[in-house]
Each structure stands twice: as C-alpha cells, then as structure tokens.
Design brief:
Layout: E1 6-8, E2 20-22, E3 34-39, E4 45-50, E5 59-63, E6 68-73, E7 76-81, E8 89-91, E9 97-100, E10 105-109, E11 114-118, E12 123-126, E13 135-141, E14 144-150, E15 159-165, E16 170-173
Length: 188
C-alpha cells in the first residue's frame, strides 16, 4: 500500500504553518485559491494555495512513479515535482476538461484548442486552434479526443464535429480556418 501523497482541502487552514502561495508567475498572492496539502516522503507536509485560473475545473492527477503531481486550479495547470514547492511548469488558465491516457499523458481542452501534457517526458504540446469559442460533447477513446467545436459564423449549425489523435497530432474537422485564404480585396 502506498502512502498518501496529497489531500485536497476545503479551504485554507485557520491555524498551523503558513500556506505556500503557488502562482504561474511566482509572485505571491493572498486570496484563497485551490488548496492542496502535500505529504513528503520524510513525513513532513506543506500546504499549497494554488492561484485560480478562469474556469471551474479543479482536479489533482498523481504520478508517484514519475515523482510528479499535476494540479488544475480553476483551469490553471501546475506541474509539481516531489519535494518542491515551486512548479516545474505552469500552463493554461482556461482549461475546462482533462482526459488521462494510459501512458501518463494528459489531454486538456480549453476554449479553443487542445494541450497534450506528456508527464514522463516533460513535454507540453499545443494544437492549432480548433474552435472559435468552446467545445461540447467531448469524449476520449483510444488515442482520440472527439467532440463538437463552436462556429458562430455558421448559417445552419453552430457546432461542427472534430477529432484529434494525441499521438499523431492529427486533427480532422473543427471550425477554425487554418489554410491561408486570399483576401477578398486582392484582385491580382
């Protein structure tokens, strides 16, 4: 049986050691964020107050075999390394959904694109823009994230299907144009 490595707290503790403010830019802040207590292998612990992003998504993914914990605080992602109180990496601020693949990869969706976080390799990859503003009906199966991408300029249907393979990085569909088109005002 493995030892407990973290615990999500309902709020900042009213007594005990001071919490550690964790923010994307390293600048301390003093309002309550997403609060997580970490338990070190030497029996000590510390409390991280993670600065909020712009969404409602809160979750902790633990990778003890890799010595990492990934915290999502209201859409802001923090990749934490065991024994450290400063994040290895921060990304996003509007992540609304995350899916975990069998190979310790996290596939995160924000309002316009997808972020592939390879925990074992410390690689973060951003897709091209897929949606104008939002996704619906996201599902992850095998290696593929699929769902609907929002298209406000559509005359018929405002949602169009897409699929994204996180291993090959192949995108099919979506609503955001990627090919450069000739401007309407160019005559020649």
């Amino acid at each position: 049986m493995s030892a407990q490595r973290y615990q999500i707290l309902a709020g900042l503790p009213s007594y005990g050691p001071m919490y550690v403010p964790v923010s994307p830019d390293g600048i301390p802040f003093y309002s309550e964020g997403f609060v997580v207590q970490f338990f070190n292998s030497d029996g000590t612990s510390w409390i991280g107050n993670f600065q909020r992003g712009l969404e409602t998504f809160n979750h902790v993914y633990d990778f003890p075999e890799l010595g990492k914990t990934v915290v999502f605080a209201y859409g802001q992602c923090y990749i934490m390394t065991d024994g450290e109180q400063k994040p290895l990496k921060t990304l996003g601020y509007g992540i609304s959904q995350v899916f975990q693949a069998s190979d310790n990869t996290l596939i995160a969706a924000d309002q316009t694109d997808v972020i592939v976080i390879e925990i074992g390799n410390d690689i973060v990859w951003y897709s091209e823009r897929i949606s104008w503003d939002g996704f619906a009906d996201l599902a992850f199966s095998g290696d593929t994230l699929s769902g609907l991408a929002y298209k406000p300029t559509s005359s018929a249907d405002e949602w169009e299907p897409f699929s994204f393979n996180y291993r090959t990085k192949e995108l099919i569909g979506g609503t955001y144009p990627t090919a450069a088109t000739k401007p309407w005002w160019k005559f020649w």
